[in-house]
Amino acid sequence: MVDPPPLPARLSRPGLIAAAGSIVWALVTLGLLVAWLVGARPLDLWFTTALAGTVLGGFGYGVFAWQRAAARRGSRSAQRGTG
C-alpha cells in the first residue's frame, strides 16, 4: 500500500487555517449585518451562528497564539507541537 502524499506546507500550518476560518466567519457576520441594516433579512439563527463562529474562532486563535508564544519563550507549561 502506498502512503498518501503529505499536505502542502500552506495547508499544514494551523495558525493560517485558524486565522482564515475566523476571517471567513467575520465576513459572513458582517454580510448578514449589512443585509439586516438595508432591510433584506432579519437577524436570525444564521447571524447568531456566524457571530458565534467569529467569537469562538477569535478566542481559539488567541489561545493558539498564546501557546505558540509561550513555546517560543521556552515556558515549561507550554504545549509543544508543530507550528
Explain the overall architecture:
- The chain has 83 residues and is mainly alpha-helical.
- The chain has one domain.
- 64% of the residues lie in helices and 0% in strands.
- It is built from 2 helices and no strands.
- Helix 1 (14-37) packs antiparallel against helix 2.
Quick overview of this protein structure:
The protein is an all-alpha fold and 83 residues long. The protein is 64% helix and 0% strand. It has one domain (14-73).
Query: How many domains in all?
Result: 1
Principal-axis shape: flat
- Major sheet description: none
Q: Averaging pLDDT over every residue, what do you get?
A: 87
Number of helices: 2
Radius of gyration: 18 Å
Tell how many strands the DSSP assignment holds.
Answer: 0
Task: Determine the N-to-C terminus distance.
Answer: 29 Å
- Estimate percent helicity: 55-70%
Q: Pairing-aware structural class of the strands and helices?
A: mainly alpha
> β content, as a range?
under 5%
Stretches where pLDDT is under 50 for at least 5 consecutive residues are none
H/E series: HH
